[in-house]
Each structure stands twice: as C-alpha cells, then as structure tokens.
C-alpha cells in the first residue's frame, strides 16, 4: 500500500528545492513535532547517492537514523529514493500560480497504522511548509 501527503508552499521552486536538499535547512524542518529534532543531516544528492538524517526526541530518550539511496532525480521536479528497509518514496515538485505543490508518496510499513503514518509524514511536510514560508533567510 502507498500513502500520499501533499502541501502547497508560497515560494518559488528554487527556494523549495534548496530547503528540501540542503543539510543546513533539513536540520531546521525535518521533525514531526516540537518534541523532535534533526541534529544531523548528510546528503549526497545524485542518483546512487545516499542520505542520512538523525531524528531524535529533544529530551534524548529516543532517536533513529533515517537512511536511503536516491534512485531518480530530476532537478527542481522529482526526487525518488529507497529507504534502507526497502520501501520506496517519490516526491514531486510542481510550480504554478499558487506556489509549489509537493506530492510525496511512500510505501507503507507494517508497524504503524496507515492513519498514523500519514499523520506523521504530513506533520513533517507541514513543518517544512511553515519553515520555508516563515524563515527569511530561506525565502530571500
């Protein structure tokens, strides 16, 4: 089963792409809630390249590495990757008069319900949107 989360960001596609792919920016937005953070982000953005994002609770009680390999990249349009557990993720960026529409589709896993997974991934995407739209050094 696949799950899709979506948003539209009031920014141009170059700004959105930079915020999505730059480790300094990834560390600012890559968390589902204020109780979590992303203290480390490594990215080798090319087909066959890897990424590794460290996700941790702010109190240090929990944490995990989110690791994957890029399988397809189309600059300013598409990022596809496989997570280390074998699941596939596809992200599409489409700019129009409303801003940049992001559609992120991922293979579901079996530990959590579809609703929980969708809510978690949507929360991260919403955090991304809020960060891009509110942080002056990203949008300027």
From TrEMBL:
Write down the Gene3D superfamilies for this protein, in alphabetical order. 3.30.530.20
**Lineage: superkingdom:** Bacteria
**InterPro entries this protein is in?**
ASHA1/2-like_C (IPR013538), START-like_dom_sf (IPR023393)
All copies of domain Activator of Hsp90 ATPase homologue 1/2-like C-terminal, residue ranges: 10-132
Into which family does the record put it? Answer: Belongs to the AHA1 family.
Could you identify this protein by its name? SRPBCC domain-containing protein
List the top taxonomic levels of the source.
Bacteria, Pseudomonadati, Pseudomonadota, Gammaproteobacteria, Lysobacterales
